[in-house]
Amino acid sequence: METLYHQTNKQIQEVQSLMGRLENTDRQSVHLLENELQARIDQIFSHLERLEILASKEPPNRRQNAKLRVDQLKYDVQHLQTALRNFQHRRYSREAQDREREELMSRTFTTNDADTSIPIDETLQLNSNLNNAHRGMDDLLGSGSSILTGLRDQRGTLKGTHKKMLDVANMLGLSNTVMRLIEKRATQDKFIMIGGMLLTCVVMFLVVKYLG
Asked: What CATH number belongs to 1-103+163-211?
């Protein structure tokens, strides 16, 4: 396991080094570097699957530490995967804007029988609408993230309140029926919270799908 662990850790460091070259790579070669990075990340994920199996076979006194080390590697490579996808998303957006700008600049006069005009206003309006849609999606995603964070915080608050209520109930010697009612209400609140999170995720997915 040690050999594979150090090999995987070295690969992660190499990917981190290559990630720093993305911003300075020319447009003609950047997709080749992206493909190389993705291939290396996929290989790391494959090694992590093997490491998880090996960690589970470690002696009991070393198993927990082995799993923690593998989890740390997994966290690092997931962070790299997210960074690569974010870079690709920004690159796609820049290329789309460049294409729109080139199309606008390449538009020529359209000749009619009586006059000559330049259809620039329509193109500018379309570009403005696209930018507004992108900003709206970013704002909505940010709001959805804030809502999910709030729901997680609310869950923690509810769990704390539930524990305090149980402690007070024990101190006052309340009946088992009252205790069950308290636990039932806490369970209902938990389902409501989960339902709210799922609904928020569905709304965000639909917005991204139809506005994107």
From this structure: 1.20.58.400
